[in-house]
Amino acid sequence: MNLNNRVVVITGAGAGIGRACALEFAKAGSAVVAADINWEAARETVNTITAAGGAGLAVETDVARPDSVERLAAVTLEHFGAVHALVNNAAIQVSKTVADTTFEEWNRQMAVNVGGVFLCSKHFLPALRRTRGAIVNLSSVNGFFVEPMCAGYCATKAAIIGLTKAMAIDHGREGVRVNAIAPGYIDAGLAESYFQVQADPSAARAAAGKLHALGRIGRPEEVARVALFLAGGDSSFMTGAVVVVDGGFGSGLPPAG
Ligand SMILES: NC(=O)c1ccc[n+]([C@@H]2O[C@H](COP(=O)([O-])OP(=O)(O)OC[C@H]3O[C@@H](n4cnc5c(N)ncnc54)[C@H](O)[C@@H]3O)[C@@H](O)[C@H]2O)c1
After folding, report:
1. Best of 36, 113, 160 to mutate for ligand 1, by most ligand atoms within 8 A of CB?
2. What is the reported pTM?
3. Which of 11, 111, 147, 184 has the most C-beta neighbours closer than 10 Å?
4. Which residues are marked as active site?
């Protein structure tokens, strides 16, 4: 599918990787529905798109709430009439061990990170069946290669891999492709929130770069370009895949220095 004149819904499009996806899809000619719990941030994303001559709509959405996601789907279809791609990107990170995580924090993180993928996929699948569209889910290298102090977050990112594969086999015959991206550290909000809870945040940031074979953390647009590929026709025989975009993070520890 050529993404020109197509409609893409991106959750968490007000910041970081989600915003980069919004700008990348808009550059490719898609109309972008920027769904974010932070409406001001989503509106800023859309303002950037429309200032460059593109089309967009900001919709205040809490992906963890069924009523909010139902409204997102209704407003999107009312406004654009069709949906060709859904990027399930919104997530939060509780940077704690299981021992320190409260039950409320656990539930909220599960509801946003996994429940959000479920709810948005559920409510956009009828429209995606009609266009033989695509879903792109943001997992993480932490879905299979974990780190300290983010147990619940790692669990949500692993769950997204399972959900991606399950939806791929359930909906492949309907023409809907479902893939996931597993980024390494990316210079965006969730990595920053993880650095901030370490004893020395700037040292943690520098050390994170050194964990990657390429010697640096990634940029949001380096993930967004892969999302664009997975949503479009160039990946037409890909479904159920987890594409690792990690600068070599998962390949092993690079030489010191
Ligand atoms: N930054 C990284 O290093 C990294 C690495 C691997 C995977 N990821 C994944 O990429 C995605 C984006 O991460 P990021 O670092 O760009 O995040 P970010 O914090 O920069 O942006 C997340 C956006 O999601 C929105 N959001 C939060 N809760 C929401 C909710 N309930 N409903 C709707 N919107 C909500 C926020 O308002 C924000 O605009 C996440 O799924 C994350 O797990 C990030």
Report:
1. 36
2. 0.98
3. 11
4. 153
Structure tokens at 80: 């654009």
- Ligand 1 centroid–CA 257 distance in Å is 30
Residue nearest to atom 32 of ligand 1 (CA): 62
- As a three-state string, the secondary structure of 49-86 is HHHCCCCEEEEECCCCCHHHHHHHHHHHHHHHCCCCEE
| pLDDT score of 257 more than 80 | no
Total tally of structural domains belonging to the chain:
1
Q: What is the rounded average pLDDT of the residues 45-54?
A: 98
* Dist. CA 186–CA 93, nearest whole Å: 14
Q: How many CA atoms lie within 13 A of 194 on its CB side?
A: 23
Q: pLDDT tens, 15-37?
A: 999 999 999 999 999 999 999 99
pLDDT at position 3 is 83
CATH of the domain at 196: 3.40.50.720
Evaluate whether residue 1 is within a structural domain. no
How far is the C-alpha of 133 from the C-alpha of 239, rounded, in Å? Answer: 12
The residue to mutate among 9, 10, 11, 37, having the most atoms of ligand 1 within 8 angstroms of its beta carbon, is 37
- For residue 13, the 8-state DSSP code is T
Range(s) of the domain holding residue 133: 7-251
Tell which residue, 16, 156, 167, has the closest CA to residue 86. 167
Residue 256 belongs to some domain of the structure: no
| Ligand 1 atom with minimal separation from the 189 CA | 20
Q: What is the CA radius of gyration of the chain?
A: 17
What is the 16 CA–ligand 1 centroid distance (Å)?
Answer: 7
